[in-house]
Amino acid sequence: MTSLSNSAVKLNGNVIGVDVGTGSARAGVFNLAGVLLASAVEPIETWKPRPNFVEQSSEDIWMAVGRAIQSCLAQSGCAPESILGISFDATCSLVVLDSSDRPLTIDIQGEAQRNIIVWMDHRAQAETDIINSGDYDVLKHVGGRLSPEMETPKLLWIKKHLPHTWAQAGKFFDLADFLTYRACGSNVRSLCTSVCKWTYLGHEGTGGRWDRAYLNAIGIADAFDSQKIGDDIRPMGTPLGLLTEQSASELGLTTACAVGVGIIDAHAGGLGLLGAIWADDPTCDPARLETALALIGGTSNCHMAVSRQAKFISGIWGPYFGAMLPDMWLTEGGQSSAGSAIDHVIADHAYAPTLRTKAMEANVSVYELLNTELERLARDQHLPFPALLTRDIHILPYFLGNRSPNADSHATATIEGLTLDESLTSLALRYYAAVQAVAYGTRDIVRAMNAAGYQITSLFVTGGGTKNPVWLQEHADATGLTLLLAREPEAVLLGTAILAATGAGAYLSVQHAMRAMSATGESVRPNQATATYHEAKFEIFRDMYSEQRHRRERMASFGNL
Q1: What is the Cα–Cα distance from 156 to 165, expressed in whole angstroms?
Q2: Cα atoms in the 13 Å half-sphere on the side-chain side of 79
Q3: Domain boundaries, the chain
């Protein structure tokens, strides 16, 4: 077992991290050395009533969280009394409650339990465009343009389209903040959620401020003036209090369990990954962090880099002060569609139903069957490296727009090299090109970050894609960077457990908890023989986006017909 850092204040006990992703709620019990003792996952329900509308229920999510916690406690054999602290991470989804803390609908049809606009919901595209056409100072801290995935455009959409909900609303929460509020009753917002998704200026004044001129200009200041959002904003891991009797009962814990301020899910992954960079450095030198990028993969991908000085990068979110690590500026790149892009390319092929059947019969994943087919093709063609299989297939994977580095939510996907072939081979090649395309998206983000002063030489990675050897090797080869996997594969849960440990007073600071609880595992190095090939493919990747922009400009005059 990893020895505890001398910064540990408490040596015994366990903590729980809760991660609410797009499709499920997960809970993990960790000891104070960062070892996962047990984890559990529970599905959450999602509704898509029309294109670009994605909705969830806060009650459904809270019940799923309770089931996951009780399940992992049972698996671990840990008594509820052993849990010192808990914290929550979640997607940056918008939760609406009425004045009695009951769910308040955000659904056009008025379904009461549907009170969450999910992060990937793009219903507020028009409102986003309106805001981005203004000259607002807050836009400097989001790469120059807001995304419809952020909260102020969503708030404006509610005010315009659901005036009854706007009038009846008692509280608007980012999902992670709703969870801490439900847990301990403290109406405190996370510095992470507020800075990254609500345009809070964390670097100004004492602890930050809201830009009232911006809120007035776009027409939503009344929600802030009436304390529906609140001004009590605190750094992640700050103690909030203890579980209430009701929440302790619902979660299967005790009222002695401390609650720490939460965080956005991807940012939790950054905490769980980057602490390993200090393995041999008890001082936790912040300069080391400027050479590393945390890649948290999933339905979307998030790319977290931190620096001591603010770095303004067009098309990339940030710089956000204190939004992941205390006193550090966060630069946040991302791909709105990453794992979902790969899955869509697979599902959209004529051979997909047959592939799913074969995978079920063989009790393996569809990715394993596709990877086996790629191995066969490369072997039969006597290729020096498998990536050459995609030399005639090029994909721009912007199925949900481009988050970074172009900040173009109107971008769409392009696939070049389609034929009438409906075979397994055709699907395998298209899947391979999609994996590479997602990797080129990461390369494009690293390119923009390094041009702005970062010196990124390694990727610390976590997420579902890291279980796929093809995903790993192609990301190393396509970016030219070494990939470092965490010792603990559940790095997002670990990051939230780090906040739970800090909030419970087990460590002096988030940094010390990161160092004590994080460690690296395996590494994947790039195959230098592929460098020239991937350079050519990457240039085509960037050309495809430029050409799409040109075509959109040519057709723009027909948009209002």
Answers
A1: 12
A2: 4
A3: 339-483+534-554
**Spatial CB neighbours of 278, under 8 Å, sequence gap ≥ 6:** 284, 285, 288, 511, 514, 515
Cβ-count burial 95-112 (b if 16+ within 10 Å, e if not):
bbbbeeeebbbbbeeeee
Dist CA 116 CA 44 (whole Å): 12
Q: Is 76 exposed, middle or buried (0-12, 13-18, 19+ CB in 10 A)?
A: buried
- Of 2, 204, 214, 197, whose CA–CA distance to 90 is shortest? 197
449-471 residue pLDDT tens: 999 999 999 999 998 899 999 99
Answer yes or no: is pLDDT of 4 > 60.
no
**Confidence at residue 1, expressed as pLDDT on a 0 to 100 scale:** 36
Please give the structure tokens belonging to residue 133: 């056409």
pLDDT one-digit tens code per residue, 55-114 = 999 999 999 999 999 999 999 999 999 999 999 999 999 999 999 999 999 999 999 899
* Cis preceding linkage at 43, omega within 30: no
pTM of the complete model: 0.89
Res. 546: pLDDT tops 90:
yes
The encoded tokens of residue 136 equal: 């607002």
Tell me the pLDDT tens digit for each residue of 368-381: 999 999 999 999 99
pLDDT reported for residue 561 = 47
Q: Which of 539, 355, 538 shows the shortest CA–CA distance to 431? A: 355
Q: Decide: helix, strand or coil at residue 110.
A: coil
CATH class of the domain at 339-483+534-554: mainly alpha
* Cα dihedral 381, 386, 390, 396 in deg (nearest 10): 170
User: Residues for the chain: how many in total?
Assistant: 561
Q: Residue 205: its pLDDT value, please?
A: 82
> Exposure of 63 by Cβ count < 10 A (0-12 exposed, 13-18 middle, 19+ buried)?
middle
- How many other β-carbons are positioned within 10 Å of the β-carbon of residue 347? 13
Among 158, 156, 155, 128, smallest CA distance to 144 is for 128
- pLDDT surpassing 60 at residue 2: no
